[in-house]
Amino acid sequence: MSYVDNVISEIKKSSPAQVEFHQAATEVLNSLRPLLQKEPKYEKNKILERLVEPERQITFRVAWIDDKGEIQVNRGYRVQFNSAIGPYKGGLRLHPSVTTGTIKFLGFEQIFKNSLTGLAIGGAKGGAKFDPKGKSDNEIMRFCQAFMTELFRHVGPTVDVPAGDIGVGGREIGYMYGQYKRLTTSHDGVLTGKGINYGGSLARTEATGYGLVYFAEEMMNDRGNSLAGKICAVSGAGNVAIYTVDKLQQIGAKPVTVSDSRGMIHHAAGIDLAALRQTKEVERASLTRYLELCPDAKYIPVSEYPKGRNMVWSVPCFAAFPAATQNELNAADAAELLKNGCQCVSEGANMPSTLEAVDLILKAKIAFGPAKAANAGGVSTSQLEMAQNASMQQWSFEEVDQKLRGIMSGIFRNANETAKEFGEAGNLVLGANIAGFRKVADTMISLGVY
To answer: What is the pTM of this model?
Structure first.
């Protein structure tokens, strides 16, 4: 059994039932095979064994009182995976699907994503199995305060700096930061995604979606093409999807789909950004509300999706942007995209494509931007927020956006050149994984055994 195969086997034994973590680790480790054959120092120093084991896993009880006066109990998580190149950095997810395996896969991916940015940040992730939907503002506040009452002792501006993720936006970050200040009497950059009035960064809200499009444009430009004038399919209707739609429209592309957990919108005339923001950011409503605002659009409920499929990927498009959640694009979806002539897939969510889907897309030789590279704009701008907090400054939107564009361009070049170095031109999965891994692994060797 090879070194990689042995480590993958041990992961499955030591972390049983953590399917998402197994998937993420398998994808990364398999793509590292050419580097490991070329550089025996990584096996000699047992880097893979050290890398797949988090430096620290924290679970804790979150007890809070709902509006009926009843006590509710949830489990909170923070997995601090790797701090070789900087303080732990990664979001907090509040969603009923959250498990240990979910948090570990997200934290593991974050190591390489953060490494690719070129910034001094390590990898972590956290959250809770908690559904914000249907909760009042007061219930959300009480939950967030209870969550931070435990988490605060494990984080700090040079130790671990959480951010938002699914279910955690500006409202939740504000409640958590308020509790952190109450407990520590400290005003520092311990969370990113904060409000502009208390240390947040301009362009942070837009960053993941904007960065996703910047990365896709880099892939297209490298192939002598562009997204301008092209039809695009976007999944999701949260922060990433909304600002992917926004930036696509800014560059002259035509996004025609968005989706949520209940169904999807296909708006052949092009998504109405104002209606989408009203629906999701202001009213926090289902996409059926978008249909009321834009009656020329078409709404398709999940119950009408083909079995085992995501209907979004049946809409003919030049470029696809899966920006909802993990494993939303499977092999059948990928086959449908390819059949309809899709030339670009850029991942906005974390691990939104199954291993089988990625394999089909790579074999088709179309442009494919893996999440750890393509959606790194959010964490990059979070680090820029940390820099502004440390220097007690606030940069302009244009300055942050310019830095973001430069970072995304640098990530593409690094991944693209690394893929070419190993004889796999165009394979940005291999290029991103090797480039991200090499920086972290070499640093771990330099720091000795710890």
So the answer is: 0.93
